[in-house]
Amino acid sequence: MTRHAGLALLVLLAACSSGTEEHGDTLARIRARGEITWGADIQGGEPYVYEDPADPRHLIGFEVDIMDAIARRLGDAAHPVKARMAQYTWSNLVPSLERGDFDVVMNGLEATDERKRRILLSEPYYIYGETLTIRAGDPYRSVFDLAGKRVGTLNQTYAHDILRMLAFDWVPYEGNEEPYRDLVLGRTDAVLLDNIIADRYGCIPANPTLRCLPYDIARGTYVIGIRKADPDLKQAIDQALAAMRADGELRRILEKTRLWDERQTDLVPSESVSARKRRFDREMVVQFLEAAWVTLELSVLSFLLAVPIGMLLAVARTYGAPPVRAYARVYIELFRGTPVLLQLFVLYYGLGEVVRLGPMSAAVLGLGLNYAAYEAEVYRGALLAIPRGQSEAARALGLGPWQTLRHVLVPQGLRLALPPMTNDFVALLKDSSLVSTITVIELTKRMSVAAIDLGSYLIPGLLCAALYLALSLPLAELARRLERRLGRDQRPLAL
Amino acid sequence: MISVRSLSKRHGARLVLEQVSAEVARGETIAVVGPSGGGKTTLLRCLNYLESFDEGEVVIAGTTLRPGMGRRDAALLRGMRTRVGMVFQHFNLFPHLTALDNITLAPRVVRGAGRISAELKARDLLGKVGLADRAGAYPHELSGGQQQRVAIARALAQQPDVMLFDEPTSALDPEMRDEVMAVIAELARGGMTMLVVTHEVQFARDIASRVWVIDRGRIAEDRRLRP
């Protein structure tokens, strides 16, 4: 729900507020306030910014140290400046910066041409190499061996741009660990990510079957993102970084977290590959249509799973023997009482070692099992709403319990359940956007990818909303007709 | 055909039926009358085991019913119910099925009758209750009297040995009662063994061979009207 609300808000903001926000005095305000706020996402984990295991209320990481040092250098003895981190979802950091939620972004932000067009970028504070990780024994030696294979990477990273430029089948992730877990399980064929992440999450003793190729596929830099209107802030930060490089503080910070390597003293990499700038064109519309198809397929299959399971649960809970009733109730409360996002994570990553489901099957199963709990209660309500005389008449005619259900109760119950079922299906259509967390690219995910490519949420947001409506409106009409057909023996009572 | 022996039933502490014993021979029509809450309907519902009882036994259409019959006796009970038809005060037709399908459902599902033979039989029964032209109508398209006549045809479709009527006319407007009572009277003349719970005293006198007056859980009076 919040995702959809957030989307609507973004579309609105993009529509009304672009250009109206006034910035440009950020540096002055930082000095006046004595505080610089920087956006980051602790989900990026060690070693960037993360909660101190010894004291989870305290944030540590090399970026915390660097930002503290920059803050100190922005202030002076009379007017000290402190740094404060603001938690944001990584993929929303740049839009949030532009909106003015915080002063700068610093969280493994790579210097890409696309970002350079959008915001100001500081001089680099870290130089990384893109590392290709494969399963030991696989023959791949370069990215070019991976044409037609599935390659995992973090959403909206430089590695992501490289893969898209090569037109590879990329699989987007949001967390550092998940891409490697799926590689171990064979769901992908390789992972392309920064050496920092590969060294800490990929080629580690816990993953003995993974191997990191020893040379860099490409090099890139981590930089601090600053609003276009604040060139003086960029200048101040660049000066601070240059001073930290000169007096050895940067090296000391990086050595502390064992991040200092020969890359840091090499020449800063020149302009490298960048995803070509995209425009809103036919190809993008086709991608949206494909994503809408994924959303529809996902919702229909999940619902086809949820309906029969829900019916069984409703019958078990209404007519079953006491232990059967208890099981049905536990199922319903468990799936209804925990977030579907959590269930998808458990199904895809948690049980990944036991049952190797593809992302699409895990998504269908996860949504189907979850919605079955809701359908069960809808059908239970419908069964309870059928007058008692119906099952008595059936019993008096000699029908057994199953025959009564099949020929008398279920047909009447379905008619009663149709309006809430339609409701649930429309809700499912939109909830299906949650499966982007397990790497399925559906409509909402396509929208956010396109929004980054285009640098605007407006067109992708409107197109996305139009496609969701195009899916749900015909469905509501279909349900209305079905209702009329099933309900020909029922007319609303006049008030 | 029906033998009730020392039948007792409690609702909590209240005794609804108290040591009821009675015999009904083949072809008899019993009018069951008495004040509301006296136990008439409960007795009727015990006879086809829609309700269980606490003591005694019932032998009906060759099946013996005892207290506490459950899942293990399901087949026995279902067999008995195909031989004992029941008509309810509020008709209880299946609203999602046409008149014809209401009648053919049980023969087809319970006895495995073919569609064609079940429908032939159903149309014949609809003719007998005077509704030959309403086979395709849904219950909501029929008047109360017509619905009750379909319900009677539905019960007859199982070719029962005994028919139980639970206040078949009390939910109907006066002008519709006659058409339903005429159908019941016709059945009585045809020799069907029947129990009819009713408040219509005149009707009871006209068709019944015996009248039971049930009051406070007992058969207070068992009067023979005609041989």
Quick summary of this structure?
The complex is a heterodimer of chains A (495) and B (227). With 495 residues, chain A is of the alpha/beta class. Chain A is built from 18 helices and 13 strands.
In angstroms, what separates the terminal alpha carbons of chain A?
Answer: 35 Å
Helix content percent band of chain B: 25-40%
Flag low-confidence runs of chain B: none
DSSP summary: helix tally of chain B:
7
Total number of strands of chain A: 13
Radius of gyration from the alpha-carbon trace of chain A, in angstroms: 27 Å
In helices, the fraction of residues of chain A equals 40-55%
**Separation of the first and last Cα atoms of chain B:** 17 Å
Overall mean pLDDT of chain B stands at 92
The whole-angstrom Rg of chain B is 17 Å
Strand content of chain A: 5-15%
Structural class of chain B: alpha/beta
- Uncertain parts of chain A: 13-21
Largest sheet of chain A: 6 strands, mixed
